[in-house]
Amino acid sequence: MPKVLMPIGDATEVLDTMYPYFRLPEDGFEVEVAGPEARLYHMVLHEIPPGAQPPWDITQERPGYHIRATIAFCDVDPKQYAGLFVSGGRAPEYLRYNEDLLRITRHFFEAGKPVACVCHGIEILTAADCIRGRTLTTIAKCALDAKQGGARYIDQPVVVDGNLVTARTWNDNTYLLKNFVQRLKEAQG
What we know:
Layout lengths: L2 E5 L4 E2 H13 L3 E6 L4 E8 L12 E9 L2 E2 L10 E4 L5 H4 L3 H12 L4 E4 L3 H6 L7 E2 L6 H6 L3 E2 L4 E4 L2 E4 L5 H16 L1
Parallel strand pairs: 1-3, 1-7, 2-4, 3-6, 7-8, 8-12, 9-10
Antiparallel strand pairs: 4-5, 11-12
């Protein structure tokens, strides 16, 4: 079964991560979860609480499920993977400083392999300098990250630019995964 690499860390968003984790195997792709270390990680839930008083102008973060990374970034050979899925949450904020993850990310772009990215995952792609000249989407509060990385930001559910498929948030998972799986299958021939 071809493998898709999913980098995560503590504070990875539950729905950004779990939907593709279970969805990709349905189409014959094994998901391998990687982290700064091979260990159990804490996921979080992000949402603007409905009807909260006083109202929130940004998402509230609450504890979610846990997920195990079976391999550390430093041990990943990206040539062994058919694609890369970069989820969001708060984790990309600190993961973008991991040189091994940046090396891995660059490989997928240099090799033209399918890459999916949702929400704050764009911070990793920007740090790896992989989005310059691309058109993409992300959560609105990360539009500046996309522009600073040299990309053209569009606010819509999904944007496909060559091997890169991007979405705003977990609300767009259906569109994101449909397009990502299509690219993975095309790349497999």
